[in-house]
Amino acid sequence: MNTAQQIKQALETYESLAFLTKSLEGDNESVLARIRHGLKRTAKRDHLRLLRSLRADIDGFRAHYGAIAPNHKYRALLRDARSRLGYSYLPKAFIDSELFRSYDRVFPRWPHVPLHALVVFDGQTNRSVMQIFTLEGAVYDDVRFLISQAQAVHKGIGTRDFRSRSPEDQRALSAYVRFAAGGVFQFLEAYLNGVAYDCFHTYHDRLSLADHDCLAEWDSKSKRVRYVSFERKLFEYPEIVGRMVGRTVRRQTFKGVRLLDGYGKRLRDALTHPSAYVHVQSGEQEKVSLAVTVNLDIAESLFAAAKDYVLGVETCLGRDPTKTMPWLPT
């Protein structure tokens, strides 16, 4: 590889490191453009000096962010991001173990970011997309949006007076509250499964076999999947994490958990697994009844209970919710 080719490769390395550390936009972008534009007019006798300067800058980048991978790996990640029409995502676990030791220089709250979180990149631009994605955060926003839409078409009309609402608004309201109520439990499942993932991967070698299998939804004896019920996750996952981090978690102290585990669980089952079958004991089509009677008050109450529950778990585990999940109002 001649000096000119080495310069081009160094420029790509510089670009990839700047892109992955959210520092390509602005000055670094201008510097790269200027060097590339002027490379053909640069005298060959100056190529070696330019290459040395670029390599020094690359070494500085690597030292500042604690880069641990060989340069070709960063270049490959940049090419992959450039090839995607949409956003690309890198898991925090991958960044920490394979790419950078000091990513808190990119996101100051990085030590508090959940292990299962994804960092967002836009390979079609050089914009510094300062976004961290978690599924629980996305679903929480979905539910908040659905409830806001439900409130708009509800128009303050009481349940008894629903006939005074226009048929169009009533139809929209029913759809919004039904999916908002179901979304509350998708939010909780995403949160609890994220908690389980982080604990499983962080403390894998220290977990008891029972806790290992519970978090992984696995049966080590039969070597096959063994799903864990929602109510077990609601209570046992925080307790397992608490044991691993040295915190005592008392399930009865969680706000909102009685509503979520009682009426909420039955409604969740009705919406997740809709069925016309008759309940053996009551003799009624209980799931159908639950699904058709859900209203805005119920959806709002479930949403508030889920938020209180998650904030309670985070606090019990010794975490600061404003840093672990800044999208969740405290």
How would you describe this structure to a colleague?
It is a single chain. With 330 residues, this protein is mainly alpha-helical. It has two domains: 3-133, no CATH class; 135-324, no CATH class. The protein contains 14 helices and five strands. It has a three-stranded antiparallel beta sheet with strand order 1-2-3. The protein has a two-stranded antiparallel ribbon with strand order 4-5. Strand 4 and strand 5 form a beta hairpin. Helix 7 (167-202) packs parallel to helix 9 and helix 7 (167-202) runs parallel beside helix 13 (296-316). The longest helix is centred in the middle third of the chain and has 36 residues, at 167-202. The N and C termini lie far apart (57 Å). The mean pLDDT is 92.
Tell me the fraction of residues in β-strands, as a range. Answer: under 5%
**Structural class, please?**
mainly alpha
- Segments where pLDDT lies below 50 for 5+ residues? none
Note the main sheet. 3 strands, antiparallel
Write the H/E string, N to C. Answer: HHHHEHEEHHHEEHHHHHH
Number of strands: 5
Kindly report how far apart the N and C termini lie: 57 Å
Mean pLDDT: 92
Radius of gyration: 26 Å
What is the overall silhouette?
elongated
Level of helix content? 55-70%
Read across the widest sheet, the strand sequence of neighbours is 1-2-3
- The DSSP helix count reads 14
Q: Please give the domain count.
A: 2
